[in-house]
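Side project, low priority. Logging it here so it doesn't get lost.
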Amino acid sequence: MSSLTQNGELRDVLHKRSVILEAVSDQPYTKPELTEILGTSRSTIDRGIDDLESIDCVERHNSRYAPTTKGELALAEYTKYTNIMDSLSRAGDILNYLPSDSSVSLAFLDGVSVYPSDPNVPDSALKASDDLLAISTRMNGLAPTALSTYPDTIEGGVQGHGLSVEIVVESNVLDSIIEVRSEAMARLAGYEDVEFYRTDVELPYALWIMEQEDGETAGMTVYNNGGIQGVLMNDSPAAVSWARKVYQGYRDNAVNVTESVAQTE
């Protein structure tokens, strides 16, 4: 049997029999025990065990079945795959509003929390990130667009609980928000722990990292034609690490314009 055929058979069996493999990975079981635990017929268990044995993913010990090393590894990778597919299914409608060439790491999507926009109340998608901001000590972010209320929201955090802020803003967006909210932006830039960076590079998404006393969270606010389509959030170390790396790349090539923004009032 060719390696391609073996790989295809492994995928097919895992797709059909992963529930059985997952059950015996917890502890060895007999077939009657599996029938009771999984609530299925004995014939289904028989076929499932036969299939898993045929690809060397389970082995029998004194009438009990347990995963082989191959079975444990295969189940771990299959679980990662199904988790990613589940995340893509939940986040897909929001992700489709991003430019097609946007690079979003699977590390960020694995286990991501999804907050879609309500067509009747679009800003409702921001509630989770606003609640997080209210308990955060620092926020770094990319701003390819901005709502006119953002200066007020950020200033509330700065004044209310000493929030530190660092934002990389597209040049045209910065100019527009200064034109619309010059006094608020000047006041915001005057705080010691607030910094603005200007970039001429088109930012692919509104990516941010918020730090709390007990952890960190990476997030992405997705817009379309200036309207909010949803928010994605993930506090896993891998997601935060990816977000920091992306943010730092844009931050390193941007220009600090905090002082000039403070003088626009």
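Brief comment: The domain at 3-77 is CATH 1.10.10.10 (Arc Repressor Mutant, subunit A).
Revisit when time allows.
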